[in-house]
Every structure is written in C-alpha cells, then in structure tokens.
Specification:
heterodimer, A: about 550 residues, mainly alpha, Cytochrome Bc1 Complex, Chain C, globular, B: about 325 residues, alpha+beta, Rieske Iron-sulfur Protein, four-stranded antiparallel sheet, 6 helices, about 20% helix
Chain lengths: ~550, ~325
C-alpha cells in the first residue's frame, strides 16, 4: 500500500469517515437544487469569517471613521468589507431561494415541520442581523435607515421601550450596542443552524416525487443504507459548491467597486461603497434608501400611514403564515399542483416581494392611491388564480426528466428584468447607447426564454414531451467523451489559476488597485470550485443516475 | 507487477499494474452471468454501450487517471492557498509612525479652506482641529481685548517651570496677528475639552466661581488673570490649571508645571488660508516621554500610536459651547 493511501486510511479510520451520522445521498441528488442549504451555509460561513476580520479593526465609538480607515488604510480592508456586505446579500438571496424551493416541493410537511420553522426563524434573524450590520457603517444611509426603523417602532407607544434596547446611544455616534447585537444575532443564527443542520441530516433531503409522492417523504433505513456515504462523494461535491459560492461573493462586489456614477436606482444593489457621513454637506444631495432587502417594507409604508396596518401587511401576516404553514397545509400531497392554494400563495409571495421591492427602489416615498394598489396587487393574483385553475398536474411519467434549477430560473428572472428595465430606459432616453444595451439584454432574454420555453411549455403539452423522455432514458449519451473534455478543462483551469495567483502577489494592499485582489481571489475560488466539480463529474458521475 | 516487453536492449512498459488490475476486474465482470456483457448490443450501439457498461459496472475511472485528477485538484487548491497568503496582510494593522510634521491646510466642516478673517474674536465655542496626528486636538483662537477687538500677539519667551528652561513663542498670525493655536490636552494630567477650554472676557469674572462644571474658575485663576492684566484665559476644570493664551500658553496657575505646547501656524495673506506647519514647546502628552518634560514636541511623533497623520488637510470643528448651560 502506498504511503498516501496509508495516511488517508489512518485519518479516515480515526475520524470515522466511513460511518458518519450524516445523510447518505442517492446518486440523483447531486444537483444544486438539493444543495441550496449548503449554499446558504457557505455564505454564512464566509460572512462570519470576514466579519471577524473586520471586528479586529472596527471601532464602535467612531463607526464612519473606522469604516473609512478599513477601506483606505487596512491592507485589503476594502476587499474584506465589500465581500462581507455581499456575503450577507448572498445569504439573504440564497435563503429566500432555499426557502421557496422547499416551499414548492412541500418540504415543510411531516416530518420536517420543525426544520421549516427553524429555517423561517433563521431568515428573520438574518434580516435583523443584516440591518444592524448595515447600520454599523454610520453613513448617511445607515443613519436614515435607523431613523426610519426607530420611527416605526416609536409610532407604537407600547413598543418605544425597545428603542434603547436595540439601538443604545446610536444617535450620539456610539454604535457599541448595535455592534454587540449584530454579533449576538449572528451567534443565534449559528446556534439555530446547528439544530437545522442535524435535523436536515436526520431526515435527509427531500426524495424525488417519483419515489416518494406523498408525505412523509423520507427514506427507510434499508433504502437509505445503500446510498453514497458522506465521505468522499458528498464531501467533494459540497466543497465545490462552497468554493464557488465564496468565489461569487468575493468577485462580484470587488468588481462592482470599479463602477462609478450608476443611476440612483442601481445603488441599493450594485454599490458596495459607503455614502457620505450624515453631518457632511454632501449628505444633503444624496437620495436615502434602505438596504435593498427592506425596500419592500419601505414601499408598503407608502400605502398606509397607520403603522399597525403597515406592520401587519409587511411583517406579521407573511411571517405568521410561514411559521404556521406546516399546520394549515396538512394534506400529504407533495405535488405543487395538488395543493394549488398554497402554491398560488407562494407564487404571489415571490411576485409581491420582488414587485414591491423594485417599486420601492424606483419610486421611494411616493404615496400610492388605493386604486393603484388594487391594480398592482390584484392583477398578479388574478393571473395566478386563473393559471392554477386551468393547469392540471402532469402525469409523473410524462414529465420531462428534469426541470430547470431554481438558480437558472432566478438568473432568467434577472435577465428578464434587466431587459424590461433597458426597454424602459430606451423609451425614456432614446440613444445609441441605450439601444445597444436593450439589444444586448434582449438577446440574452431571447436565448433564455428559448431555453426556458421548452421546459415550461412542454409541461402544458405532455404529448410533445414523450419522445424527449424516451431519448433521455434509453440511450444515454456517452459520458466518456464529456469526461475526457472535463479532464482537459481541469488542466486548463490549473494553468489559469497559477497565472492569476502569480499576478495576485503583485497587487498593492491598499488603494485603487487593491480591489483587484478580491476579484482575482474570487476567480481563483470559482475555478477551484469548478475543478472540484469536474473531478466529481469524472470520478463519481454515473451514466444513469435514476431516481431511486 | 507492470507488464513489460523487451525490444533489443531497452525495456518498454506496455501496461501499468493498475491497468492490469483493471482489465482483470473488467473481464471478470464481463463473464459474470449477473452483469454479462451483451456483445450483440455492443455491435449495435458501438463504444457508447461499452463505455456506459464499464462506467456502470467496474467504475470507469482507473487508479492512474484518478490520481492524475487528484493531483490537479490538489494543485489548484495549493495555488489557492498561495494566492490567499498575500491577503493575510489584512491581519497586520496599519501602524503609522509620523516621521515629521505635515503641512496641513485648515478646512471647515464642508471641506472648504477656512478663511482666517472669518474666525470670530473671543469665541466661547470650543474650536478644535486635529494635528499632527488624529486624536490630538488643538485650540484655534482669535484673541481680542475686553471689547472684542482683535489683539496683536507678539513673540514672547515662555518658561517651563518644571525645568526652568525657556523657548521662544513666535506670536500670532492672521490679518491682525491675533490668531494663535495651542494643544487642547492639559499638560497637568491630560484632560481634554470640554474640561479644558478658553474663557472669553465676559466669562472671566467672579460669577464663574460658582458656575457648574466644566465652567468653574478658581479664585487663584481670577487673581492671576488680574495680576497678568489679561482679559481672557485657558483654564482646565479637572484640577484648576490655568494658561495664558496671550503669552504663548504660559503657566498662570498650577497644578500644571508645563505650558501648553503651541501649534505653529502659517498665514497666506493672498488667499486668507491658514496652515498648521509644526509645533513648539513641550511634548504633547504629559504622560509621554516617561513624564519628563521635553523641549521638543516631535519627541511624541515617533513613539505615539494614538493616531495616524492628519495629512495635508485637517478639519476645524466648532461644536460645543461650554457656556450654553450656564
């Protein structure tokens, strides 16, 4: 036996890698749909690590100055700070995707009710911790966000005792309490995560509906024991996902740092830099807005002047609904079209969340008449209700082998919105530039809708799907050529990584160029994740991974 | 035991051990009735069937290939670690050691240069700026007489009572030579504003004896001001030290034994701008230099880690009026 084999055996024996109490995973579950929780966890871990580095420098008594010091003077401080912000953004987006995916597959049903409730609580804590973290910067936006938040609380006199408890002496520039609560909430997320994680490992991921069409959807001990153990396939697949998540978190904000002079409505999403301090004259010229994940609340505040109604619509009703969901949807049906009411509510929640957030971004603080509210919120509801009434659940055997992943559909939605936005922009300011952008996003939209259309429409026309299903199940295309290709790709990526790493050593730690380090490190993480993913494909991927 | 053939003198490898093992395993599987290789289907579908068959039953990737791929993964991971190494500099805090005094333009809160002629005479509002390091406050004073007319401050010899040594204070600057600047850290035990601040003429009187903290004047301070015949003074409410702003920050009453160090100002009469260019007197921190007074304020610069250099601009802030409460 070779030395490396002996060393790895020594470790796997001591660590008990062969019989970890983790969920054993069937072959067909190595797709990102089943691993969305791992993506959330990866962004959580990244944000905690970068946050601890920032904690070494942050001074709660001089929030804005120490933020500026971190950006301008600490080596690679801006890289860490911007990616900390976008790590939190990624965590929020991925948590929503994770939640709604599990909503539509019915993962909240027996026996996973507690898992679901813990998850909803973690989402609330995440939003709370993000808001407090946003306030720590102490720029004009943070101060106005705190003002608005505190204003909402104080307008209910019985709750105003909470102001000093939450914000301490924030008004006088002392952010000690906000910092402490920020860390406490994150620690709570970590604690709940441990429970969430072990419950998830206990019940396992949601099996395919073809295998377990009804709740409780769990594998029996015998079925379960023949699946892949955690070590090594799960480990390999998971690390590829984690590194890719980190790559995006690092590369995106540090690249965005080089964009300047964006139109105002892009700022909440695409500007990682702090605004001027609140006491500076420059602060008078900026439009204040809340962090983007609270834009929907910001808009709802324009609908009504009654804070109680506002809190009911914006926070309490959706939250209570999500928490008690496992107890109101008690049927054992898992197919979304066999529980149409809940599917419809889910679709409307997503629609309203995005719609209201964008509305808050484009027209913040503009009052909305009741008539406009009805138009804006009734139309999606009618479309969803009509659509769901007429769509019938497709017979499982006629279903195309695989739908689109939630990430693909998210990407498509982003592209569609960009396209819509660029068209509006073209109508408002017709020029060659806006035309070029509209054409570009339009072609992206066209390509996307072509790809999506096949999947979406074939569900409505089951006859068309039949030949397709046959081709995929009976003559699987040779994976061997693809694997050869993957190996070549791995070698190319290795060379690329070495080149980028060599370049990283030449980037100055502070100043304008320092954010390139974050972009490069992000690319390196992305490529590392991709190489591991290709390794997983070559070594573990079987030609047929049927749902079992 | 790799398979080799001999051709003339040299040996040539044909199959590696792992390949041999793989072939053996494959043949065994092909003969096994449970997983028999269907040659008819092979003829029909060609290599696709074969590769799929191998992948399904023997685990397509042989040992050597797998090790090569593992090597690439480990290589990329190692390169990533190498890439992270320069990033570890994020853990090294930027400790700035100011090598000398910068020339800093005094600017107002909006960042525009401060006009010297716009500084109010005998202002009771505590007017401060940081120099030469952040976290080191200094008073900016436009001195006047009892009726509020600016007074020209002439150069004067200042004595350090603790050592008996003297140094030359260069006098006031500005359109009327009435603008002076002193460190706002009390030389007794290091109290900072609002405990130590400037008392304009209207607040130098018996009524301040009973004023609440931080506006209380001691009887000694009043007496010393009367004897020195000065309308205004700098007084620290912590322990009662009093300084003479008209005479280079000289000591009027104890317990301090050191005068306030002065910031050297430069006045540009063409633009009406003020620049801080250095300091004179004892070291800024009374606790610094092991408590031994220095004649050289730059003594602090190389040991101080209290802040970083203010750079070419420093902001003048006039925020607190200590007398507004009384």
């Amino acid at each position: 036996m070779s030395l490396t084999k002996r060393v790895s055996n020594w470790f796997s024996e001591r660590l008990g890698l062969d019989d970890l109490p983790f969920f054993k995973t069937p072959d067909y579950m190595y797709h990102v749909n089943e691993w969305l929780g791992a993506l959330v966890a990866a962004s959580f871990i990244y944000t905690v690590i970068s946050g601890l580095i920032l904690l070494l420098y942050y001074n709660a008594a001089a929030g804005y100055q120490s933020t500026e010091t971190i950006i301008n003077q600490v080596p690679y401080g801006s890289v860490v700070l911007y990616s900390h912000l976008y790590g939190a953004y990624a965590m929020i987006i991925l948590a929503y995707v994770h939640m709604f995916r599990n909503y539509f597959v019915g993962a909240y049903k027996k026996p996973r009710e507690l898992l679901w409730i813990l998850g909803v609580l973690m989402l609330v804590l995440t939003l709370g911790a993000s808001f407090l973290g946003y306030s720590l910067i102490g720029d004009a936006l943070a101060v106005s966000a705190v003002d608005v938040g505190a204003g909402i609380i104080t307008s209910i006199p019985q709750l105003s005792f909470l102001i000093p408890i939450i914000f301490g002496n924030y008004d006088t520039g002392d952010y000690t309490r906000v910092l402490a609560l920020h860390i406490i909430l994150v620690a709570l997320i970590g604690l709940l995560f441990v429970f969430h994680f072990f419950l998830a490992e206990h019940y396992g991921m949601m099996p395919s509906r073809k295998v377990k069409p009804k709740a409780p959807a769990v594998y029996t001990k015998e079925e379960w024991s023949k699946f892949n153990p955690w070590w090594p396939r799960n480990f390999v697949y998971m690390s590829s996902l984690i590194f890719m998540t980190w790559g995006f978190i690092l590369a995106i904000p540090n690249a965005l740092a080089y964009l300047n002079g964006l139109p105002q409505y892009f700022n909440p999403f695409m500007n990682p830099k702090p605004a001027p301090p609140p006491n500076s004259p420059a602060a008078a010229h900026i439009t204040t807005y809340p962090p983007w994940f609270f834009l929907f609340l910001y808009k709802i505040a324009d609908f009504t002047s009654d804070v109680v109604i506002f809190l009911m619509i914006g926070v309490i009703i959706p939250l209570v609904y999500l928490i008690i969901l496992p107890f109101i949807d008690r049927s054992d049906e898992l197919h979304p079209l066999k529980r149409k009411v809940f599917t419809g509510i889910g679709i409307l929640m997503i629609t309203y969340l995005i719609q209201t957030s964008l509305w808050g971004d484009l027209a913040p603080g503009v009052e909305v008449s009741v008539k406009d509210q009805v138009i804006a919120y009734l139309i999606p509801a009618i479309i969803v209700a009509l659509g769901l009434t007429f769509i019938k659940p497709v017979d499982a055997q006629l279903k195309p082998s695989r739908g689109i992943s939630p990430l693909t559909s998210l990407l498509f939605m982003v592209v569609a919105m960009l396209f819509a936005g660029s068209v509006v922009e073209l109508i408002d300011y017709p020029s060659l530039f806006t035309f070029a952008i509209a054409v570009f996003t339009g072609s992206l939209f066209f390509i996307g809708s072509k790809a999506m259309g096949k999947v979406v429409l074939s569900k409505g026309l089951p006859n068309n799907a039949v030949p397709e299903v046959k081709t995929t199940t009976e003559t699987p295309t040779s994976t061997e050529t693809k694997k050869k290709f993957a190996e070549v790709l791995m070698s190319i990526l290795f060379v690329l990584v070495v080149v980028i790493v060599a370049q990283m050593w030449t980037i100055p730690p502070t100043g304008y160029a320092s954010n390139l380090f974050g972009v490069d490190l992000g690319l390196v993480f992305l490529m590392l994740g991709e190489v591991i993913s290709l390794y997983h494909y070559v070594v573990y991927k079987k030609p047929v991974e049927k749902e079992e | 035991m790799p398979l080799k053939i001999r051709l003339g003198n040299g040996e040539k490898g044909v199959l590696k051990t792992s390949d041999l093992y793989f072939i053996q395993k494959l043949l065994k599987t092909m003969r096994n009735p449970k997983t028999r290789f269907d040659s008819r289907e092979f003829v029909e579908k060609g290599e696709d069937y074969f590769f799929n068959y191998v992948g399904k039953n023997v685990g397509g990737v042989d040992e050597g290939r797998r090790n090569f791929l593992k090597g690439i993964v480990i290589g990329v991971a190692a390169a990533t670690v190498v890439g992270i190494i320069p990033g570890l500099r994020v853990l090294v805090p930027p400790v700035e050691q100011a090598a000398g005094f910068p020339k800093s333009l005094l600017v107002d809160v909006s960042g525009n240069p401060l006009k010297a002629s716009s500084i109010p005479v005998n202002s009771p509002i505590i007017t401060l700026y940081e120099y030469p390091l952040t976290g080191e406050p200094n008073f900016l004073l436009n001195l006047g007489d009892k009726s509020g007319n600016p007074v020209s401050i002439s150069p004067v010899e200042v004595t350090v009572p603790q050592t008996g040594k003297t140094y030359k204070f260069p006098g006031g600057v500005g359109p009327n030579n009435s603008i002076v600047s002193y460190s706002a850290i009390c030389q007794h035990l290091g109290c900072t504003p609002p405990y130590i601040h400037f008392y304009p003429p209207q607040y130098v009187g018996p009524s301040q004896l009973t004023a609440p903290e931080p506006d209380t004047l001691t009887a000694q301070a009043l007496l010393a001001a009367k004897q020195a015949n000065i309308p205004a003074l700098i007084h620290c409410d912590c322990h009662g030290s009093t300084y003479d702003p008209y005479k280079g920050g000289a000591v009027l009453t104890g317990p301090t034994q050191r005068p306030l160090p002065a910031v050297l100002l430069e006045y540009d009469s063409s633009t009406d701008y003020l620049y801080a260019i250095g300091a004179i007197g004892v070291a800024t921190y009374p606790e610094g230099s092991d408590g031994v007074p220095s004649q050289d304020p730059s003594k602090d610069l190389d040991t101080s880690q209290y802040g970083s250099s203010v750079g070419t601009k420093t902001q003048v802030q006039a925020n607190t009026n200590p007398f507004s409460g009384s």
